[in-house]
Design goal:
Blueprint (H helix, E strand, L loop, with lengths): L20 H24 L4 H28 L2
Helix pairs in contact: 1-2
Protein backbone atom coordinates (compact mmCIF):
# COMPACT_ATOMS: atom_id res chain seq x y z
CA UNK A 1 0.00 0.00 0.00
CA UNK A 2 1.38 3.38 -0.92
CA UNK A 3 0.45 6.86 0.19
CA UNK A 4 -0.07 9.54 -2.41
CA UNK A 5 1.41 12.82 -1.13
CA UNK A 6 -0.74 14.96 -3.45
CA UNK A 7 -4.12 13.82 -2.10
CA UNK A 8 -4.89 17.05 -0.25
CA UNK A 9 -4.89 20.35 -2.11
CA UNK A 10 -2.03 22.73 -1.34
CA UNK A 11 -4.27 25.25 0.46
CA UNK A 12 -5.55 22.59 2.90
CA UNK A 13 -2.12 21.50 4.06
CA UNK A 14 -0.96 22.75 7.43
CA UNK A 15 1.44 25.63 7.05
CA UNK A 16 4.84 25.04 8.64
CA UNK A 17 5.71 27.30 11.51
CA UNK A 18 8.98 29.15 11.17
CA UNK A 19 11.36 29.11 14.09
CA UNK A 20 12.23 32.57 15.38
CA UNK A 21 15.77 33.86 15.48
CA UNK A 22 15.64 34.11 19.27
CA UNK A 23 14.71 30.43 19.52
CA UNK A 24 17.56 29.44 17.19
CA UNK A 25 20.04 31.46 19.23
CA UNK A 26 18.71 29.82 22.39
CA UNK A 27 19.09 26.34 20.87
CA UNK A 28 22.63 27.10 19.74
CA UNK A 29 23.53 28.52 23.16
CA UNK A 30 22.15 25.44 24.90
CA UNK A 31 24.04 23.11 22.56
CA UNK A 32 27.33 24.97 23.06
CA UNK A 33 26.74 25.05 26.83
CA UNK A 34 26.07 21.31 26.99
CA UNK A 35 29.14 20.56 24.90
CA UNK A 36 31.19 22.84 27.13
CA UNK A 37 29.83 21.04 30.20
CA UNK A 38 30.89 17.73 28.63
CA UNK A 39 34.39 19.04 27.93
CA UNK A 40 34.66 20.53 31.42
CA UNK A 41 33.84 17.17 33.00
CA UNK A 42 36.11 15.27 30.65
CA UNK A 43 39.17 17.51 30.58
CA UNK A 44 39.11 19.55 33.79
CA UNK A 45 37.52 17.18 36.28
CA UNK A 46 38.96 14.08 34.54
CA UNK A 47 35.90 12.03 35.39
CA UNK A 48 35.91 9.81 32.30
CA UNK A 49 34.06 9.78 29.01
CA UNK A 50 30.95 7.87 30.10
CA UNK A 51 30.47 9.97 33.22
CA UNK A 52 30.88 13.18 31.22
CA UNK A 53 28.36 12.04 28.61
CA UNK A 54 25.90 11.04 31.34
CA UNK A 55 26.26 14.31 33.18
CA UNK A 56 25.79 16.45 30.08
CA UNK A 57 22.86 14.28 28.94
CA UNK A 58 21.23 14.72 32.35
CA UNK A 59 21.71 18.46 32.12
CA UNK A 60 20.18 18.40 28.63
CA UNK A 61 17.14 16.47 29.83
CA UNK A 62 16.70 18.88 32.74
CA UNK A 63 16.84 21.76 30.25
CA UNK A 64 14.23 20.06 28.06
CA UNK A 65 11.99 19.57 31.11
CA UNK A 66 12.30 23.24 32.04
CA UNK A 67 11.47 24.33 28.48
CA UNK A 68 8.48 21.99 28.45
CA UNK A 69 7.11 23.37 31.73
CA UNK A 70 7.56 26.97 30.59
CA UNK A 71 5.91 26.15 27.27
CA UNK A 72 2.97 24.53 29.04
CA UNK A 73 2.44 27.60 31.21
CA UNK A 74 2.69 29.91 28.22
CA UNK A 75 0.28 27.78 26.18
CA UNK A 76 -2.33 27.77 28.96
CA UNK A 77 -2.10 31.52 29.42
CA UNK A 78 -0.98 31.50 33.03
Amino acid sequence: MTVDQDVRPEENRAAGHDVSTVALVGYATAAVGLFGWFLFGLLVQRQGFVDSVGESAGAGFALLLAVSVVGAFRHNGQ
